[in-house]
Amino acid sequence: TEIPLREQNIVLIGFMGVGKTTIGSHLARKLYRDFVDIDQEIEQEYNMPTTEIFKTYGEQRFREIEKEHILKLCSNTRLKIISVGGGAFLQEEVKQACLASSIVFFLDLNWNSWKDRLKMLIDTRPNLQNKTLEEIEELFRSRQDIYAVNHSKIDTDQLDAEEVADYIIQTLN
Ligand code: S3P
């Protein structure tokens, strides 16, 4: 990309509930950058939680809104920390826009650790609802390829959110 490395946005991707928002907030604070969480932006714009947006407009429409937000943000900003939803990279255009404007980190967690977080996540994540644990595991596994866009995968199993942020900062230097 033509944007100097130090000026690029940092985009965090990975499955629902891996800690993109928490880690992104730490990163923003430590790097004195602004933090943007795409899901939160959409929820504010529509003044409803994502579960309601899915119910009212459907996932398809949510994806269009998500794409608009990410494309606009990526083309207009530098130096931001951006957390995108776990399904954003299903859209090729979104993936390409992020890779062209930002350093992308894939926050990974193994299935066994992730599974323990399910209870905490289910009420706010429409794509986890009305599924068996087997179906959720299948979704979790099928998404891995979508996030593997470069070599910046971070295994977060043994690290807390702040340690992940510190690790990312180290790789930037
Ligand atoms: C989704 C992930 C969510 C949110 C929406 C759909 C998905 O974001 O965008 O509920 O399909 O993976 P988080 O990854 O921040 O939970």
Automatic annotation (TrEMBL):
MF GO annotations: ATP binding; magnesium ion binding; shikimate kinase activity
Which keywords fit this entry according to its UniProt record?
Amino-acid biosynthesis, Aromatic amino acid biosynthesis, ATP-binding, Cytoplasm, Kinase, Magnesium, Metal-binding, Nucleotide-binding, Transferase
**Entry keyword Isomerase:** no
Q: Which residues bind substrate?
A: 39, 63, 86, 143
What does the record give as EC number?
2.7.1.71
Cofactor: binding comment: Binds 1 Mg(2+) ion per subunit.
Q: Which Pfam families match?
A: SKI
Q: Name one GO cellular component term.
A: cytosol
Where is ATP annotated to bind?
Answer: 17-22, 125
Q: Which cofactor does it need?
A: Mg(2+)
Could you tell me the superkingdom of the organism this chain comes from?
Answer: Bacteria
Residues given in the record as Mg(2+) binding sites: 21
Reaction it catalyzes: shikimate + ATP = 3-phosphoshikimate + ADP + H(+)
Q: What compartments host this protein? A: Cytoplasm
Q: Please, one GO biological process term?
A: aromatic amino acid family biosynthetic process
**What InterPro entries does the record point to?**
P-loop_NTPase (IPR027417), Shikimate/glucono_kinase (IPR031322), Shikimate_kinase/TSH1 (IPR000623), Shikimate_kinase_CS (IPR023000)
Presence of keyword Nucleus: no
Tell me which family the UniProt entry assigns to this protein: Belongs to the shikimate kinase family.
Kindly give the PANTHER family that the UniProt entry links to this protein: SHIKIMATE KINASE, SHIKIMATE KINASE 1, CHLOROPLASTIC
Function according to Swiss-Prot or TrEMBL: Catalyzes the specific phosphorylation of the 3-hydroxyl group of shikimic acid using ATP as a cosubstrate.
Partners and quaternary state? Monomer.
Indicate what this protein is called per its UniProt record.
Answer: Shikimate kinase
